Amino acid sequence: MKLYTGDLSPYSAKVRMQIYAMGIQDEINFDLPVQFMMGKMFQVSPIGRIPVLEVDEGLIPESEVIAEYLDERFPDKALTGSSLKERADVRVVSRIADIYLMNNIFMSLSQANTETRVQAVLDLLIGQVRRGIGALEKHIGIGNFAVGDSLTRADCTLVPALWMCSSTVPRLGFDSPIVEGTRVSAYWDNIQNNEFAVKILDEMNKGMKARLDGTERKMAEAAIARAQDNSNQ
Length: 233
Ligand SMILES: N[C@@H](CCC(=O)N[C@@H](CS)C(=O)NCC(=O)O)C(=O)O
Description:
Layout: E1 2-4, H1 10-22, E2 29-31, H2 34-37, E3 52-55, E4 58-61, H3 63-73, H4 84-108, H5 119-139, H6 153-171, H7 183-191, H8 195-213, H9 215-232
Parallel strand pairs: 1-2
Antiparallel strand pairs: 1-3, 3-4
Bound molecules: glutathione.
Glutathione (GSH) is lined by residues 9-12, 48-51, 62-64, 106.
C-alpha cells in the first residue's frame, strides 16, 4: 500500500500516527505526488487533497475513511476502543477534531493575509473552533487518553487538531483556544509525551520549519522540474 502524505499536513499526520501506533508501517510506503506540489492533486484523486491511500483495488481518499479502512484491514491491531459505547465515543471525538477543529482552522487559513483578510470571516471561524473545544471538553476522557484507557483513533485525530489549535490559531492573531485548567489542556499536556504523538509532532514541526525557511518550496521546485524533464523525454 502507498499513503500520499506530507509532513505538515495534519490530516495526513492523523493517519500516520495511526499507522505507527498499529505497527503497520512496513506495509505502507509514504509518498507525496508531484501533482500535489503543482496544485494539481485532483489529477491523482478527484477530491484533490491528501491523505490518499493507494491499495491494490484503487485509491481511498479522506483521512477518516482511510483510518476506518486500516482498522478493518488489520482488525487485531485496530485502534477503535473496546466496548460498543467506547467505539461510538472514539468516533464522536474524532469527528469533533476533524470537523469542528481542523476544518474550521483550515478554512481560516484563507484569511491569513492581514492585508486582504475579512476579519468577520476569521472571527466566525475561530468562534466555531472555540465552540468545538467547548464540546470536546465535555466528551474527552479524564485519563491519559481521549477515550478509555488506551490509545485509540480519537487520539490520532486529536493530536494534529490540538497542534493546530496551539500553533496555527495564535499565528492568526487569536489566543489558543486550549485554556489552562481545562480537561482538554490537561490531555494536551499529557498526550504530547506519547511516543506516537512525539513522532508526528516532530514531523509536523519539521514540515512547518521547511515551509518557513523555504526548503519546502525548493524541494517542490526541484521535484516539478524533474517531472517536467521526464515528460519531455
Ligand atoms: N477531509 C479531508 C481533508 C484533507 C485536506 O484538506 N488536506 C489538505 C492538507 S492537510 C489538502 O490536501 N489541501 C490541499 C487543498 O486544499 O487543495 C480529509 O480528512 O482527508
